[in-house]
Amino acid sequence: MRILLVDDEQELVSTICERLRLRGIEAEWATSSKDALKQTAIKDFDVAVLDIKMPRIGGFELKKSLQACCPHMKFIFMTGYGSEQDFKTIIEEFGQDNYLFKPVDIEELITKIALVCA
Amino acid sequence: MVTETSLGTNMWNRIKPKFWNYHYVTGKSSRWMFNYRRIWKQAVLTTAVVSLLPLIVITAVAYNLTHRAAEAELVASTSRLVSNTRRTVTAFLAERQEALKFIIADNSLEALKTPKRLREILKNLQMAVGGFVDIGIIDATGRQIAYEGPYELEGKDYSQDQCFTVASSKGSCISHMVMGFRNQPHLVITVKRSFSASSNTMLRSSIDTEKFHELLKRIDIGAHGDIFIINRQGELQTPSHRYGSLFTRIPMEAPPYAEHTQVYETVNKDAPLIIGYAFIPDTEFILMIVKDKHERMRPWLETRIKLLGFLLISVVAVLGVILSVSTFLVHNIFLADQKRLAALHHAEYTNKLASIGRMAASVAHEINNPLAVINEKAGLIKDWFTLTSKYTEDPMVLQPIDAILYSVKRAGKITKRMLTFARNLASSIEEIHVDDIIKEVLHFLGKEAEYRDISIRTAFPYDLPVIRSDRGKLEQIFINVINNAYAAMKDGGHLDIEISTDSNGIAVTIADDGCGIPEEDIERIFEPFFSTKTGESGTGLGLSITYNLVHEIGGNIKVKSQVGRGTQFTIRLPLQIEPTKENLNADTVG
Known about the structure:
The complex is a heterodimer.
Chain A: E1 2-6, H1 10-22, E2 26-30, H2 33-42, E3 47-51, H3 59-69, E4 74-79, H4 84-94, E5 99-101, H5 106-117
Parallel strand pairs in A: 1-2, 1-3, 3-4, 4-5
Chain B: H1 4-15, H2 36-106, H3 109-113, H4 115-128, E1 135-138, E2 144-148, H5 162-170, E3 172-174, E4 187-194, E5 200-207, H6 209-217, E6 226-230, E7 262-268, E8 271-279, E9 286-292, H7 293-296, H8 298-387, H9 398-423, E10 429-432, H10 434-451, E11 455-459, E12 467-470, H11 471-488, E13 494-502, E14 505-512, H12 519-522, H13 542-552, E15 556-562, E16 566-574, H14 581-589
Helix pairs in contact in B: 2-8, 8-9, 10-11, 11-13
């Protein structure tokens, strides 16, 4: 199983990546949507964990681009904002289980990854 | 002891309407739009002029008309009285003259010379006509050849008598009042007959003066009025209680001859007099009636007092109604204005809270990022200890610890900024770099711009003057205007913020390339509750409050816009706020 983590906060995304690797999960990270698209062109990923608010291209838009190139890919969203509008969109589209609020608990993330892959 | 002035002041303070002193706080801000005292004065003055002017004009016209009518009636009644009295006097004299003419025509000279016959004639005349005192026969030489009466006048010479001369030529004469041989005032009627071609004989009779006077005594002309007869030299022929006894010359010129009755007005000893006169035909007599104008006009003067009283009561009543209605209306405007202000204050407060809410959400998001990093770094260190065999001495540990410390520092900066913002909500005047405030505001609002790919260009001159103003209000102004620009722009838009300076102050121009404002709306955008935002986000208060805030700190805000091209707000700020009551209060609060 290979995970792609995308967030504009490099320290955050790299650390989560490191912690997943320590748990034996193969993970890569990207700090922009552009970088994420580059990575997916090289490797296949089963799950993408995306930050909703990112400069220029946000998580929802990136999801559309990723779905186009990797139709089998599953998605989990992270947000530090948790605005009402974001909340509604996520629940309508993915159900309650597919989002996480920052700061993210690593075990919760792994559980969610397992859930979306099941 | 209470003085009269302080009593008046106390009274005034008690009845003074609440709005009376409120115009002192009228400022540039639209918070105080009405000068209640001026509105009240205008209302009172306009309604008083409109309602009282016609009343006063109508009363003045009515006053003039009734005055003229009363005067005309006085003149007419005087004229009537003079004419009637003239007829009476003329008839009295003519009757006696005709009687004498009949006697002389009916008797022979011989019979008339006979004392017995003359006595009979006198007796018959006194019985039938009355008013005859004596009777005498005068021959052509003027000598009285026969006489019957109470005086010893037989043989007296009347050749120099005026009446003798006039009767000789005209056939008859009525004399004016004379003293004669009897040395008593009397008037004489003389008639002539020519018994032969060469000799004229005259019948001469004196008239009872009392009877003559009685003609006038019976006439009622008021307590101060007077009726008398004068001769053409102006000498009294009947007694006058105004000018004296017989033969006294009256203190005015005898009036000029007129065929008909005349009435005129004159002033004697400051008292206006109405004088009517008429010439008695075939005599020297002029009948005169003098009326005291004030006395005869008294009924009209009473009417005049009633009229003026009515006017005065009407004016007082109308003024009373005007004052109470104007006070009531202006008081209601005042109350409505107070409610409007309270609503505006409430809206402003709500907007402030909404700003805080927005800030809090923005700050929470910003803090969440460093917290997430701290969380992951700490989690990673824990993982190393629990999931791997590495130890704390390992240099790999230092990197996540540094990252933790950096993130804590970041979170600290954000919370500090949040506290600064919260502190600035309280009003205070201080020295301010406007560019710093805009930068601060952009820090808060910058994330949204970043996410929506909005590019912000700022042009701040490096020698920008320091101004004295209210930091909290300025922050709120810029947040509102920039938020407004964000709402108008699509993602990827451009926002230009420029500051320029001149001698009066500085001008901040905030221009977006958003949807713009239609021309018909541009004048209304600063009105409370006006909104073009269709979504639930627009309360219609943001720009209204911004407008008030700008005016409160002594500046002004102008807007230029073009639909589809964008909107440009220019906020001009003075170098220093002029102290107003509100700012002084704010100072003490801050």
